[in-house]
Model the fold of this input.
Amino acid sequence: MFDVSVPAHFQKLPIITIARKDGGVFIDGDWIESKDISGSGIRYITTGNVGLGEFKEQGSGYITEETFLKLRCTEVLPGDILVSRLNVPVGRACLVPDLGERMVTSVDNVIIRPCAEFNRKFLVYLFSAKHHIEMMNNLARGTTMLRVSRSALGRVRVQVPPYHEQTEIAGFLDGEIGLMDGLIEKKTRFIALLKEKRAAVITHAVTKGIDPDAPMKDSGVDWLGRVPAHWDVVPPTALFTESKERAREGDQMLSATQKYGVIPLAEYEALEQRQVTMAVVNLDMRKHVELGDFVISMRSMDGGLERARAVGSVRSSYAVLKPGPDVEGRFYGALMKSSLYIQALRLTSNFIRDGQDLNFSHVRKVKLPKPDLREQAAIADHIEAETARVDGLIALTERSIDLLREKRSALITAAVTGKIDVRRAA
Done:
């Protein structure tokens, strides 16, 4: 299934022999405790630092000598190849850069220090090829976390050309992949700018309105600043009431998510393609939620209040707000997800330090703007139209990134398996 065809002159070798010839290193369970590692600034490299063909510096931390000995880490040198034994995708590899400091890694990464007859960059490209990753993940085992054993990883057979050809392939891929990665980076930055623009459009519309000629006034509220002169600024109790109604018979379980709002748990699991552990205690304490209600959870501090997209029930620790007759749900849904509102909510309490839950008593401290219902609806329509355009651009750009990544993966696989004559391509 994974025996990819290659030119006849390619040599087929177990990975362990790549690093065990002529002084190479393959750490397969015998930890090396460096004799001169000391101090409190040892860089600890985790599986999170090992990307698919790239070293990700973000996420690595520092450990003390005591922790180093307790974890039985292994010293890592610049130029080593790290191969991750766990987390999807299993078997991803990268070259370790020179960070100018001592580095160690855990037993969850295999260290390969190849001997001189192997080009390290070529090996990283080879380990990043689609067929190799599929093979590694096919070997992985585990219930809660996939992991491939060191011995199984070492026995994996790879097919490599002579050194001069490895070097030619690596050089060709460096150039081609570098161009693709540059395009991906530009498109990723463009998406970030589009998302910033989207957030700015929403925040401006819900706090300043959409009439550029409207007279403005000081709202008297720090987080709002100036608002249209004809808007009222009111306490949340003038717009919402807290509901403590218990779950009704037959209520479906809802999940309050920052990404989708408050939706049925089954729908959330389908969207995320994973199963969520359901609560089995205090089910009679769950709260009933109607379509359009707002739900407050601890996560509201990070992502704003969530609006219900379905009828059902939520956990008893959540607070449910019923909108009054002067509330256009789409307008306040956008307002309460805006960064300015979330920041104002964070300033209402030291509840994290006090061990409290975020509830209506915190929300009621943040005064809200109140245009009339017609203007709320017009602003909501404007937001939907503007964000739809931005979302369309984001979707197109994300699709182009996906296509580039597919092309990148196919090119790597074709090059390392000898399907491309890199001399002609160059």
Remarks:
- The chain is about 40% helix and 20% strand.
- The first strand starts at residue 11 and ends at 14.
